[in-house]
Target: MurR/RpiR family transcriptional regulator
Amino acid sequence: MNQSFQELIKHKFPDLSRGQKKVAEFLVNFTEKGSLYTAGQIGKEAGVSETTVIRLAYALGLNGFSDLQELMRKEWLSSAESKESASKPAADSAAEEKKPFSEWLSPVDEKGLSQAVDALIKSDQVYIAGFRESHTAAYWLYYKMNQLRNHVLLSFPTGFLLETLCNLTSESAVVVFSLPRYTKEALEVAQQAKKQGAKVIAITDRRLSPVGQIADITLLAGTTEHILSLLALSQVVISSMQKRDEKTAGKRQEHLEKLYAEQGIFLE
Model:
């Protein structure tokens, strides 16, 4: 089986029973425990029976619980190795930027952050979507990213234009903000972006949130529903982009500063 544990869960999640979904959520969030615990221990932690844990393995198309645990062990070991070898700029930025926001920010997934930053730098365009309360964070990320690169687009607070999404290509990146209560529009943007072949980056509270289930990259903004969790993670993304692509970002910022001065935008 070529699918990773995370990919397999995301693919099968909609078809799982309620109890199996509880187990899946637990294993995604605590893969290390899932790699070491017995089926009974996992069931107790997830609040379901041992039988439900075993049935999950079969629902995922595996031959039994031992196969499921082996898949989790591989994922856990791979994740541990990737954390050690994560790019220095991304790791430094995450450590530096999350200090003021430690109350709101979950531990940063260095591998996911590095992949997201790489996609945001190399894409032909970036579309940022956030609806209702999430639009505040979406606008902030849009504004800051426009200072680092060109071709950055933003959704409306309560909707989006299909005419804009139809311009997305396989070289595009789409960032979708999604916290409870999850909006229909956020999921629709992610689904349409996938159809267009764009890379979808979810900034959400759970890997198995509606948008997280279909995203190519999921960055967790913490379990709190506070908007500061989104802004904190957005700051980490921007700082990482700036450090990863200093030359391009520097040239654009230098050009912008000249325009600001010519127009007298800022008083000081």
Notes: The mean pLDDT is 86. Residues 5-83 form a domain with the Arc Repressor Mutant, subunit A fold (CATH 1.10.10.10). The chain is about 55% helix and 10% strand.
